[in-house]
Write a structure and sequence with these properties.
The complex is a heterodimer of chains A (about 400) and B (about 375). In chain A, strand 9 and strand 10 form a beta hairpin. Chain A has about 400 residues and is of the alpha+beta class. Chain B is of the alpha+beta class and about 375 residues long. Chain B folds into three domains: about 110 residues, Butyryl-Coa Dehydrogenase, subunit A, domain 1, CATH 1.10.540.10; about 90 residues, Butyryl-CoA Dehydrogenase, subunit A, domain 2, CATH 2.40.110.10; about 150 residues, Butyryl-CoA Dehydrogenase, subunit A, domain 3, CATH 1.20.140.10. Chain B is built from twelve helices and ten strands. In chain B, the strands form three sheets. In chain B, strands 1-4-5-8 form a four-stranded mixed beta sheet. In chain B, helix 5 runs antiparallel to helix 6 and helix 9 runs antiparallel to helix 12. Chain B is globular, with a radius of gyration of 20 Å. Classes of the chains: A alpha+beta (about 400), B alpha+beta (about 375). At the A-B interface, helix 1, helix 8, strand 10, helix 9 and helix 12 of A face helix 1, helix 7, strand 10, helix 8 and helix 9 of B.
Chain lengths: ~400, ~375
């Protein structure tokens, strides 16, 4: 029995046992398709189909949405999602494809939608049958999110939407979108409202989804253009003009600081997938020859790698400490560092891996001689998605400085 | 063995940490610290040995010096996570005292088996102690020493002995014909001379200690093994002290950045100030999390204690350097003066950064564990 298991409540202990058994009996086989590095990089229908089947089976078994009420398709349990997450990750399952749905849309819909809408949307979100995407960023609204210009004009009990959203991961597969837009141009924050939009059903009828090609050459995210799209007022979340407050619920959960634990699985190793962590970096250094010796024997490389090992371990221990209230000075201080640290550490690991590879870091996915199949240069380039998305590292430092340290707002 | 999820930081540890925080808040303000240690600014002065013996006596009576001593030797047998919580508060107050030295000696003596028990009882009864295990080079290799032992007599010189003038007893490492032995020696024994160093840090004293035909009884004949076993606790506690002091530096600087106005804004409005302060906080949190992880490993997962303690002290040394640098820089002109309190912490942190191994040294040891010794 693991130490964390020892501190489970009776409900958690029983549930953990159940999850463990179910996973032992039902863990999916390794796919025949190459899996992407993360759900946000799903490129093909084959990848999606495999991952959706996994999410559906985990949901049907009760491992997804555990802490939501039964009425909205949840498991009606208390503080059990993290138990399921622990077990799914230690069983090295595939990841779930509907990450934006689970991590951002679900808590937002749960906190701000009418009861009937929750009951309609959440079960298919948890099962992964409906993939969700997020319509927040715009060409002119990145870090300054509240300056979104996509506009909804009232027409009876309908709204007519016009605008342009960008960096919309999964939009090419999504059934639904959470959409932050403007209903009043005279107030920056109080002029925002929040909708859910069934975008797949209106594709070509006021909605266009176009792929954006990433720095790596991969597709995976998109731009979404609204031209006179008609949406029912019943799809509005919370009150008119409360869009910013609703968006805060979304962002708090996105940053891992919300009250509802996001369902998470993952850890499956396959030849085609590759994790940006220091264990792999050490393996790379061991396998790389430099001046006739292993790169792992080079004192400068060793020091660089140990710096990263320490940062990575520190992040893991922060997450552990964030659950021990006696060892915290401020309730959000550790949680609000999560995304910033995870993304910057991954970037530094990628950068160091390329230096370890030396000249071979020039070789990319299509080259048979590329170390690790060319995955390190790709991981390094992809890491900029993480330090930019969901509030850039600079915005994260503003948030930490202002909310945690209480420094004056920088604007 | 694996670690408990909450680091083993239970109710008792929480109460101890809270009572320490209250003790220093009630009894030892930064203003008092400054008056006590910074009365003489002459850079060529000999370091004083200043400490508040009355408050120290209260700490002894609260049982803080006996926390780590096994119950069988008259102590309280508390886990290292609880002791680390206390030391974090001592670091935050920068309280000059021989607590760390006495705790360090405790962990080494506890690794000496039955021969160390009498010495542990001395500490449990209120005696103060410190380690004298470093040579003139300041080598952190435990097999190195500047003291020799022949026929039960110690001769030579131990260097970089922390808080030597506050200590009643020295735990000395000396080379013997067989290897390295450890000795428990009174500071006022015949042949022992404490030679104070003039140091930058105002909150500690440091000395080199001369031994001339000092009669001594060994507490361990395998000194390297006993020291090796204790070092993870010693590194972890110094890292805990650094964490607490760095938190003081952060809060003092944040407060200043909130009141000092320039260009019609408080300093903290500017991202050139705000973002590095966030980075100081990030380093403190990394360090603090690694400290409790290392402490918990000493308590519950000894096979990985050295690995995790190297991480903690490497992180702490970086944290000490960066928090110190930013605290002076962001206080601007006043931060460069003797009258501003932050120089006291700056100097304490620079001392702690290098003591018992700097960041690069600990990372090199960590690499030996995780990658293997380089060919």
């Amino acid at each position: 029995m693991s130490e964390s298991a020892r501190q489970d409540s009776p409900e958690q202990a029983e549930f953990r046992q159940y999850c463990r058994q179910w996973l032992a009996d039902n863990k999916p086989k390794e796919p025949t398709v190459r899996l992407p590095l993360s759900p946000l990089e799903i490129m093909t229908e084959e990848q999606l189909t495999y991952l959706q089947a996994w999410q559906k089976s985990a949901y049907d078994a009760g491992l997804v949405g555990c802490d939501y009420p039964v009425a909205v398709g949840g498991g009606g349990r208390t503080d059990c999602q993290r138990i399921a997450n622990d077990e799914m990750i230690s069983a090295r399952t595939p990841f779930m494809p509907n990450v934006i749905g689970l991590g951002m849309a679900a808590p937002t819909v749960f906190h701000h939608a009418q009861e009937a809408l929750k009951e309609r949307l959440l079960p298919r979100l948890f099962s992964g049958e409906d993939i969700w995407c997020q319509g927040f960023s715009e060409p002119g609204a990145g870090s300054d999110l509240a300056s979104v210009q996509t506009f909804a004009e009232r027409k009876g009990d309908k709204w007519i939407i016009n605008g342009h959203k960008v960096w919309t991961s999964l939009a090419h597969f999504a059934e639904w979108m959470i959409l932050l837009l403007r209903t009043d141009r005279s107030h920056k924050y109080d002029g925002l409202s929040y909708f859910v939009v069934p975008i797949k059903s209106v594709l070509g009828k006021g909605v266009t989804v176009r792929p954006l090609i990433k720095i790596t050459g991969e597709t995976g995210f998109n731009e979404v253009i609204f031209e006179d799209l008609e949406v029912d007022d019943g799809y509005r979340l919370d009150e008119l003009g409360k869009g910013w407050q609703v968006a805060m619920t979304t962002l708090l959960h996105e940053r891992g600081a919300g009250e509802l634990q996001t369902p998470r699985s993952g850890g499956m190793k396959s030849k085609a997938t590759h994790s940006t962590n220091t264990a792999n970096l050490i393996e790379l250094a061991r396998a790389t020859l430099r001046n006739g010796k292993s790169a792992a024997d080079d004192p400068l490389i060793r020091d660089r790698i140990m710096q990263l090992v320490i940062r990575e371990a520190g992040l893991g221990q922060n997450q552990r400490r964030s659950r021990v209230s006696a060892l915290q000075d401020h309730p959000a201080r550790l949680l609000l560092q999560n995304k910033l640290l995870a993304s910057e550490i991954a970037q530094a690991i990628g950068a160091t891996a390329m230096e370890v590879e030396g000249a071979s870091a020039s070789l990319y996915l299509g080259d048979n001689n590329a170390p690790a199949g060319g995955q390190w240069p790709m991981a390094y380039m992809n890491s900029y998605g993480m330090t930019i998305a969901a509030g850039t590292s600079e915005v994260q430092r503003n948030i930490l400085g202002e909310r945690v340290l209480g420094l004056a707002k920088s604007k | 063995m694996t670690q408990p999820d909450n680091f083993g930081f239970g109710e008792e540890a929480g109460l101890l940490k809270d009572s320490a925080r209250k003790f220093f808040a009630d009894n030892f303000t930064t203003d008092r610290l400054h008056r006590m240690v910074a009365s003489d600014h002459n850079p060529e002065r000999m370091s004083d040995c200043v400490w508040d013996r009355d408050l120290w006596q209260q700490m002894v009576e609260l049982g803080w010096t006996a926390l780590a001593i096994p119950e069988s030797s008259g102590g309280l047998g508390m886990p290292l996570v609880a002791v680390a919580g206390l030391v974090e508060e001592v670091g935050k107050a920068a309280f000059p005292c021989p607590l760390l030295g006495s705790l360090n000696a405790t962990y080494v003596l506890a690794a000496c088996g039955s021969a160390g028990e009498a010495a542990l009882t001395d500490i449990a009864e209120g005696m103060t102690a410190t380690l004298a295990v470093t040579n003139a080079e300041g080598s952190w290799d435990l097999a190195d020493t500047g003291v020799q032992s022949t026929k039960g007599q110690l001769n030579g010189m131990a260097h970089f002995v922390q808080d030597a003038r506050k200590a009643d007893r020295l735990l000395v490492s000396a080379r013997t014909e067989k290897g390295l032995s450890l000795y428990w020696v009174a500071t006022d024994a015949t042949g022992v001379t404490i030679l104070p160093d003039a140091i930058v840090d105002l909150t500690r004293d440091q000395a080199h200690v001369s031994f001339e035909n000092v009669q001594a009884q060994a507490v361990s004949e395998d000194g390297v093994a006993a020291l090796s076993q204790a070092m993870p606790a010693i590194w972890t506690l110094l890292a805990a002290d650094i964490t607490g002091a760095a938190e003081w530096q952060l809060q003092a600087t944040v407060e200043y950045a909130g009141t000092r106005q320039q260009f019609e804004h408080p300093l903290g409005f500017f991202q050139a100030v705000k973002h590095p302060l966030v980075d100081v906080m990030i380093l403190i949190d990394q360090c603090k999390s690694l400290v409790y992880n290392a402490a918990c490993a000493v308590d519950a997962q000894p096979a990985r204690a050295a690995e995790f303690a190297h991480m903690a002290k490497a992180s702490a040394s970086e944290c000490a350097a960066f928090a110190s640098s930013r605290s002076v820089q962001f206080h601007g002109g006043i931060g460069f003066t003797w009258e501003c309190f932050i120089h006291v912490y700056f100097k304490r942190q620079k001392h702690s950064q290098l003591l018992w191994g700097d960041a690069a040294w600990h990372r090199a040891q960590l690499a030996n564990i995780l990658i293997g010794t380089a060919a």
